From TrEMBL:
Region (Disordered): 310-334
Gene3D superfamilies from the UniProt entry: P-loop containing nucleotide triphosphate hydrolases (3.40.50.300)
Organism name: Egibacter rhizosphaerae
Listed name of the protein: ABC transporter ATP-binding protein
Record GO biological process: response to antibiotic
Signal peptide positions on this chain: none
GO cellular component, one term: plasma membrane
Length: 334
């Protein structure tokens, strides 16, 4: 296994009487794209904010590039997607990129970076004159301007059309395939499926599963059966069923035993056609793993912190007292 460039080691994080992270171990390796998944209240946002140096753990240790992410010099080795609303509308794209580059000791060539993200034709255009998708591409590009060892990409392709999303995927792949690492969070699970070398699933402040996408799929032991039936069918009477979803003329069934389900259709002489059997998707596996691990939501303190424009050279945010700080990841302590 390659070198660990960022890690949570036995980390706990409390917000007053609630616990957001409960003894979490998480390692990010050089040269990988790590997909970090979890439902609301899972601890995902708190984990990312700790890696970014925006919070300190109450227990355990957080490491980034061999140092503490709350240290000013260590944070120059980190890139984070910025909030679009924090940008100055009258500044041009190249000006914003050059300004961001001043926060890093070994920044990349700005024009080269803009070309890599398909923004070179927009270099002399004001930020306020860009479309929403173009603005989003720029904020993601700026996460890489300092040539950081670790890039934290929080929902990087939100608001992009299919073509722009796939173009951005290519840029992320190129970055994560070398000596650097990318931590990716996304509600587009097909995006994580396409990009991530490894996936960590959080629920109620704990690691529920980790491994490659294929390993996560196999872990839940489910198969997807898609079929058209000539009548209403109670699939649970045919075999073990985890989920049934009707889609137009077809029915999609998640089952641990596809053979038994199909035999049940034949045995009960139920007319069917267009039968397809396929492995469960990452989304199917994610929903199965997290079905009982959704948490209560609170005021979005950590989300607001992550969405601020992260000035890499500036000191990290100071934690508020636990009696007043809340998080969407916080869970009642048990």
């Amino acid at each position: 296994m390659s070198e660990v460039v960022a890690a949570l080691e036995g980390v706990t994080k409390d917000y007053g009487p609630t616990r957001a992270l409960d003894g979490v171990d998480l390692a990010v390796h050089r040269g990988e794209v790590l997909g970090l998944l979890g439902p609301n209240g899972s601890g995902k946002t708190t984990a990312v904010s700790l890696l970014a140096g925006l919070r300190r753990p109450d227990g355990g240790r957080v490491r980034l590039a061999g140092g503490d992410p709350r240290d000013r010099r260590t944070r120059t080795r980190l890139g984070v997607t910025a909030q679009q609303t924090g940008m100055v509308d009258v500044l041009k794209v190249r000006e914003l990129a050059k300004w961001a580059a001043t926060h890093y000791p070994a920044a990349r060539d700005v024009d080269e970076l803009l070309a890599e993200f398909g923004l070179d034709d927009l270099a002399d255009k004001q930020f306020g004159g860009l479309s929403g998708g173009q603005q989003r591409r720029l904020t993601v590009a700026l996460a890489f301007v300092g040539d950081p060892e670790v890039a934290l990409l929080d929902e990087p392709t939100t608001g992009l059309d299919v073509g722009a999303r796939r173009s951005l995927w290519d840029a992320i792949r190129r970055y994560g395939s070398g000596r650097r690492a990318v931590v990716l969070t996304s509600h587009y699970l097909e995006e994580v499926e396409a990009l991530a070398d490894r996936v960590v699933v959080l629920g109620r402040g704990r690691v529920l599963a980790e491994g490659t996408v294929d390993e996560i799929r196999r872990l839940v032991g489910l198969t997807k059966v898609r079929v058209r039936v000539a009548e209403d069918v109670e699939f649970a009477t045919l075999g073990p069923v985890a989920q049934v979803e009707r889609r137009d003329e077809s029915v999609e069934v998640l089952t641990p035993d596809a053979d038994q389900l199909v035999r049940g259709l034949v045995r009960h002489e139920i007319g069917f056609s267009h039968l397809e059997v396929a492995p469960a998707s990452l989304e199917d596996a994610f929903l199965a793993l997290t079905d009982d691990h959704h948490g209560a939501e609170g005021p979005a303190a950590d989300r607001a912190a992550m969405e601020s424009v992260l000035e890499v050279g500036a000191p990290a945010a100071t934690d508020r007292p636990d009696t007043t700080t809340q998080s969407p990841d916080a869970q009642p302590r048990r």
